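Render this sequence as a predicted structure.
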Amino acid sequence: MLRPITIPGNIPNIAVSLGLACLMGTSLPVVAGKKLSIDDTHWISVGAGIRTSFTSVEDGAPSGDKRGNDFDVESVRLYLNGQVHENIKFTLNTEEIDSSIAVLDAFVQFELSPAFNIWMGKMLTPADRIEMNGPYYALTWNQYTQPLYPSDQGGEAGRLGRDDGVTVWGTVNKFQYAVGFFDGLEGGSNVDDNMLLATRVAYNFLNMEDNPGYYTSSTYHGGLGNILTLGLSYQSQDDGTGTATTSGDFSGYAVDLLSETVLGGGSVLTVEAEYKAFDADYTGGTAPADVVAGTNPCFCLFDGKSTFVSGAFLIPKAVGPGKFQPYARWVKNKPDDGSDSDLKELGVNYILSGHNARLNFNYGTGDANISGYKGADTKRLSFGVQVQL
């Protein structure tokens, strides 16, 4: 499975695509999503991913009493991977951020054995399953309604779950591990330039999951047989919250579970669940007294607990070119310094080609959101399309 890449600057996607095609001396449609071998130990591959959706929110119009309707290109990614030595590879992925093409991943991979590998550069920080999935390998369309680790806060401590650092990872029998050190929050309250520690360990009780490196997925649509995996993630950074004049620490952990069972006739039952607990000295509800808007901003994080559970059933009989996978998801956020919130989502995936081509329709109601703190109580309908090579 290919995962994202990025090229700096405001270069339009088509220009980047044509540039890659010219670089490889062939037309892009022939190469996209495939490996172009130079010799036994030198190759390059290129791919792309798009997620686009339409959302309709009750009373979401500017008037406040009409439905708010919005089309959105949620993600546009180019994927580039290569090998330059028997044990050395690289990944370069892009994402559209703030209306420009930006680097998502850029790291060198020293892959020495199944049990010991080193990645260095900009990459995913080891975290819980929903953050390691990314949006393209999730079970549900709207999985980001829980508080996220610092590297998913945007900017000061990383973006889209990525940060600059180094990760050591590997697999020993059915045990998987990843341990990394990253910049984490830079500047602001981190006056001593402390690093972020990010770890994830997982044990596969049944069949092994199959993903690049230490990444995860939330469903394999029965393709790997029966799966039961328990994962534990932990992150911490001294002076990881607060302001330039008032520092505080951050730590958090999450326990996640994935169960996928292939039933008679080819149907597949998938259950995903997670418990997450964060401890932040300064939060949105307890910002330092010295915060002055615009001059002394606070990097404040969620403090409290969060839980979610999702269940899905892949119907074996194909309808047209694909199969339906109805699902339900429930989220509960419980901040220590605010009101509880929850969200319920019912949806259905139409699986055309695994994670490479799917349609989604879902209905969600509740006040839980990515901040972890109670938001507006909304009712929303969403239709999404995802394709990638």
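Summary. The two ends are 9 Å apart (CA to CA). The longest helix spans residues 13-23.
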